User: Which sequence fits this backbone?
């Protein structure tokens, strides 16, 4: 909702609204002949009116800037596709970037479509971003890991006190087995993300960059109870090809297990690699004699500390109050057509558009109306972060999500390090298999 009116930020690609021709910036005024704009409805109220059984129809009247009358649409309700590949673009002439936000049923279809397109654009090397990816369907993880490993290589195995070892191996021998490969992970990468990154690291297929992953690797079986609840019992654990347990120990109890990221922050582990203690018993060796570490989670080959140097109370308040999104949508509501005429592609936007002083004065005037005051010292500290976030949101709403990541990744230290490593001799020094 923007100013009490439902605004179409971006119709979902492949969804029923996009197929009909509903555009970014359109405003929904009526649903089934009933006024829904300017009467104080919440997002949830309007959503209930739009949702319904697949195949049924709903009529909406759209206000579109430049049109004298409302435009009626009859939408046939359908399944809304939710994508797991957030972004796919050429980071450099021979380096592709793909970000996967979770492992869904459709992930492999999305990934294959993305990598095929990027290869046609000249991609020979790949940055696979699994940072913040908390997991999902394990079969999807097996298939994605399969893309990078030769046929027959072990991806992961499960084993428990009363469960025999069960192995999952690469099958096809077709995919991205050649070319430099870097996987980005962080403390939010878990489960399926750890299976993929662990297999790539253990087989010396690529480099892992970022921070130690979460450490979630249990096989559980659910037993339903008569009252409708269920008990889940752990039957086995997931192990990487070298024998490392992905699962972080529960020794200190469940509560401390789930507060692990907070503990890592306080201990300094997210900032300094030396804060992580690995005894010799947790050392494992890859086929190329590289040392990798067990003890729960995947430890990256190249550690990138969490950078909080640009954060401030001002930036936190802008996020908390939703100022970034609200102002961007308000700005685009009046400027979208002119911007698209001036910058028909993201490339032209990225090369020529900038935020001048007048724009930022309008931004902070809007923020002050929402009770967020500009503190000059905070702004000086966060200026690059604030400016980049605004630019990225404008690009996302004008073009696509990939445009957002192309801009926001310029502040992503793991991503920037990956680009440096692609042109260094670290793959050769580690004797990695990429040719």
Assistant:
């Amino acid at each position: 909702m923007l100013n009490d009116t439902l605004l179409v930020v971006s119709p979902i690609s492949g969804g029923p609204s996009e197929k009909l021709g509903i555009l970014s910036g359109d405003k929904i005024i009526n649903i089934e002949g009933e006024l829904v704009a300017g009467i104080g409805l919440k997002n949830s109220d309007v959503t209930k009116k739009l949702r319904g059984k697949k195949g049924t129809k709903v009529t909406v009247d759209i206000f579109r800037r430049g049109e004298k009358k409302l435009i009626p649409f009859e939408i046939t309700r359908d399944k809304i596709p939710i994508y797991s590949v957030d972004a796919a673009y050429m980071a450099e002439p021979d380096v592709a970037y793909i970000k996967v936000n979770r492992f869904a049923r459709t992930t492999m279809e999305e990934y294959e479509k993305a990598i095929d397109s990027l290869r046609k654009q000249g991609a020979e090397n790949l940055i696979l971003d699994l940072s913040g990816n908390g997991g999902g369907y394990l079969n999807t993880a097996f298939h994605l890991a399969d893309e990078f490993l030769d046929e027959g290589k072990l991806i992961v195995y499960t084993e428990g006190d009363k469960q025999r070892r069960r192995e999952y191996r690469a099958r096809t021998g077709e995919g991205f087995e050649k070319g430099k490969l870097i996987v980005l992970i962080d403390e939010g990468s878990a489960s399926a993300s750890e299976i993929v990154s662990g297999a790539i690291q253990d087989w010396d297929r690529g480099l892992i960059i970022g921070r130690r992953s979460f450490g979630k690797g249990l096989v559980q079986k659910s037993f339903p109870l008569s009252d409708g609840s269920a008990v889940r019992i752990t039957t086995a654990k997931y192990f990487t090809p070298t024998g490392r347990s992905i699962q972080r120990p529960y020794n200190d109890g469940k509560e401390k297990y789930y507060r692990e990221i907070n503990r890592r922050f306080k201990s300094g582990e997210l900032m300094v690699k030396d804060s992580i203690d690995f005894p010799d018993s947790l050392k494992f060796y890859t086929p190329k004699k590289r040392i990798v570490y067990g003890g729960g989670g995947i430890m990256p080959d190249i550690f990138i500390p969490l950078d909080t140097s640009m954060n401030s109370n001002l930036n936190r308040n802008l996020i908390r109050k939703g100022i970034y999104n609200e102002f961007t949508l308000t700005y685009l509501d009046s400027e979208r057509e002119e911007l698209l005429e001036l910058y028909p592609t993201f490339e032209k936007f990225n090369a020529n558009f900038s935020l001048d002083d007048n724009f930022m004065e309008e931004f902070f005037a809007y923020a002050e109306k929402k009770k967020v005051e500009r503190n000059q010292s905070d702004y000086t500290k966060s200026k690059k972060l604030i400016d980049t976030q605004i630019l990225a949101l404008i690009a996302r709403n004008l073009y696509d999500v990939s445009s957002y990541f192309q801009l926001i990744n310029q502040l992503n230290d793991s991503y920037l390090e990956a680009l440096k490593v692609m042109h260094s001799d670290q793959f050769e020094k580690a004797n990695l298999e990429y040719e």
User: Anything to note?
Assistant: The longest strand covers residues 230-239. The two ends are 51 Å apart (CA to CA). The first helix runs from residue 16 to 20.
